[in-house]
Every structure is written in C-alpha cells, then in structure tokens.
Amino acid sequence: MIVKKILKFILPLFVIRFLKNFLINIQKNKFKKMKNEQIFAEIYNKKIWSPEKEKKVHRFYSGIGSHHDEFIETYLEKMKEFLNSFSLKPSVVDLGCGDFSIGSKLREHCGNYIAVDIFNELIEQNKKKFSSLNVDFRVLDIARDALPSSDICFVRQVLQHLSNDLIKNFIKLIKGKYKYLVLTEHLPDNKIFEPNIDIVTGPFIRLDKKSGVDLLAKPFNLKVIEVKDVCNIRPKKIKGFEGVVNTKILKLN
Questions:
Q1: Would you call 171 helix, strand, or coil by DSSP?
Q2: Which of 24, 119, 122, 187 is least enclosed by beta carbons within 10 angstroms?
Q3: How many domains does the chain have?
C-alpha cells in the first residue's frame, strides 16, 4: 500500500493509467482461458472485490455493492415494499447470491428461498453462517445449468461480469421460470450510452467502456410485459465512484 501511494505521487497520471490498463489486460487474458467456476473461485480466493480493510475480516466478500450503506439501504427498502405487496410471501430464487449479505436481510419477507452461486466454498460457508434462515443454497452456473423456478428472480450486479454469450445463455435458461426478474446493474450515469459492449467474463464490468448491461437492448432483446425503474443509486461517500447502480423490476412473459 505504501509503495502504491509513493508511485501515485511521483508518476504522471497518464503513466499510472497505462500501467493500470496493462495489468488489467494481463488479467483479462488469463480469465479468457479459465472456466466460469475457476474465474469466480479466483475472484473470491484472491479477494479481488475486497477493500483492504475487509480482507482480514472476511474470508469471502462480494464487494462494497453488497455491503456499503449507500448502496443497500434504499435498495432494501424498495425490495421489502415489493415483496410485501404480494398477498402471500413470494417464492424467490437469488442467482449469484454471493456472500448472502443482501439476501439475509430480505429472507423474512419471502416464502421458499433458493440461493445460488457458482463457487462451492462460498455456498458451503453460507450454509453454515445462515443455517437458521431456512435457505436452500445450491451450487449452479447460471449461464450453463438448469435453474430452479420461483415467483421472483433476483440478479444483483451479476450479469455485468459476464460475457455477452453467457448472458444470452442465461436468458434462455430463465425462459418460463419466473414472473418477475429483479435486475441490478452498474451503468454509466447518463441516459444515452451504448449498451452491452462485450467483455471477458471476470471481475471487471463494462463501465470503463462507457457501457452497461441492458437486457432489453441488442443483442439480448428480452421481451417483457412491464418495466419498472425502482432505484438509481449514486453514493456520495465513496471516493472515485462513477456511474449509477440501477435496479429494475421486469415483469416477464
């Protein structure tokens, strides 16, 4: 950390950006050669999404988007309103549940709850940590495996890490499975941008390409009955944060 701070002080900004992009491209080339389960095992085991202060505290950490108050408070409020609008508690499938920090806070408002992630060790940790919540934790690849059915499907900041081919597979797999898809994505903070620029599956997202995932746009063209914008979150306390974390409720055919 000290070395990084010194380099930032003595090196010109364009050199820092060049070095950063060079290192990122090396990582992307490595992830190209890996299977999906290997990619996300690497992310969690090497704590790529963990801030420095969290690395010693958490064995597995799904990133600040699942923990920082500015990201989760409004989201949880809106999701509880949505879940409580049903006459009976709806069944839920949580795809890419991560460390289950978010799901654990919504559990009491749901009926049957299935939480899915691709990384086996993470799921095993969740089974132990949240054993009292009556959650069916499963190891599945959401772009390859048959998915369980439910009333509602939550996918929070997951698709943004997948290539377009994997997202196309995901769309095929959810067909006829859910009444509602609750989708959260990190997008550029302007209404007009080129959506769905392809990336290599991994820890990075499309924001550096001034893009983000929009399932309603090409090449995905997901057909829905209704779209409801639920919340757009722009945290003020996170230094250097760019873009907006958008949540939509998609009523599916």
A1: helix
A2: 24
A3: 2
